[in-house]
Amino acid sequence: MLRILLMVLFFGFISCQNKKEKEVIEEDDSLVVSALPLDIPFPENNPHSKENADLGKLLFFDPILSGNKDVACATCHHPEFGFAENLEISIGVNGHGFGSKRQFNSPNEIPFVKRNSQAIVNVAFNGFNSESEVNPNSAPMFWDLRAESLEKQALEPIKTMEEMRGKSIEEHEILDLVVKRIKLIKEYNMLFEKAFGKNAVNIDNLSKAIATYERTIVANNSRFDKYMRGDATALSYNEIEGMKAFRKAGCINCHNGPMFSDFKQHVLAPKANEKLTFFDDGINKTNGFRTPSLRNLRLTAPYMHSGKLKTLTNVLEFYEDLAGGTIAESKINPEQIDPLVKKLKVNFKDISAIVEFLGTLNDESYDKSIPEKVPSGLKVGGEIY
């Protein structure tokens, strides 16, 4: 009788375990990851043309867009670092040097750029997730979602004091000033005319040109993409196991779709960056930040909005601690942490496999070329060499 009772209890336990596993699988199966499209989406009001993209590339590397003519878009989004930067948080205006050697000039009254520089590779697909198609006119941008579309995004760093504007020019003046500068350069007038027609040097076309160039920086043929398109040999056994562990751990709850991002706001509380003189409280002071893409991570360390996690292993260990109730940033209360954290099951034994899988999302086939010179005659990329 005792043996029968023990058998009933044992199979009952197994049945409950199987039921729980099935529930987790069903929940995970509602979210998917997929290959990036082969075609780049362009908005109807800013279609692609070679002339437009070529102009945008020159503008992207030209420090004439900054208040003191010392910073370009490429200063903090350089091809050598996957169009991101290897600093925790960036040094914009009044700085010199490249990568880890970059520092402020002396004297200096400019603060650090408050967040880690995000890569612009594949930003053409921002907003493309498992729930919706991408709409270039409403694509979410920045850690705090403060701009929609690459056209609007392109102008924000120019207007921001610590990034490109500096202190000598007011925010409401900088864009008009930049346009006036460009109008004085014969080569730019010719290039704008080729791209947009006569009398085309204006703020709107400036943003369209930069956005078009940024949309051409695409890496959509990683080994993961090839695997999802049907090449069963593109991933190794260990990498496939890492993909399963990625799903099982609950990473897919926020990192889904072809960009491995839901592009939504989440409160996770990584440690704040001590270089800031204030606490960065994120989107609408909620301590939330947009989910970043996981593509090309090998090239874009360090990680998180504060740049305080140096490796992917550090990131997964952070999530393991967070799921266990350990909060890295003391200024954030436990009740503020995103409820999805409770669904995380990041185990130490799976970390290396997940990191191996994330490596399959790397693709360096995008255009890394740098102009030999820019029409302004200023230093290409700003004061970085």
Label this structure with key terms.
385 residues; mainly alpha; Cytochrome Bc1 Complex, Chain D, domain 2; 2 domains; 35% helix; 3% strand; globular
Question: Can you describe this structure?
Answer:
It is globular, with a radius of gyration of 23 Å. The strands form three sheets. The chain has a two-stranded antiparallel ribbon. The chain has a two-stranded antiparallel ribbon with strand order 3-4. It is mainly alpha-helical and 385 residues long. It folds into two domains: 50-215, Cytochrome Bc1 Complex, Chain D, domain 2; 220-361, Cytochrome Bc1 Complex, Chain D, domain 2 (Orthogonal Bundle). Helix 2 (50-61) runs antiparallel to helix 8 and helix 12 (312-323) packs across helix 13 (348-358). The chain has 13 helices and six strands. The longest helix has 28 residues, at 2-29.
- Gross morphology is globular
Largest sheet, in brief, is:
2 strands, antiparallel
**Helix content class:** 25-40%
Strand order of the largest sheet: 1-2
Number of helices: 13
What is the number of E strands? Answer: 6
Q: Determine the CATH superfamily of the largest domain.
A: Cytochrome c-like domain
Rounded mean pLDDT is 92
Q: Just give the CATH class of the largest domain.
A: Mainly Alpha
In the CATH hierarchy, what is the architecture of the largest domain at level 2? Answer: Orthogonal Bundle
How much of the sequence lies in strands comes to under 5%
Which structural class best describes the helix and strand composition?
Answer: mainly alpha
Alpha-carbon distance between the two ends: 83 Å
Here the CATH topology of the largest domain equals Cytochrome Bc1 Complex, Chain D, domain 2
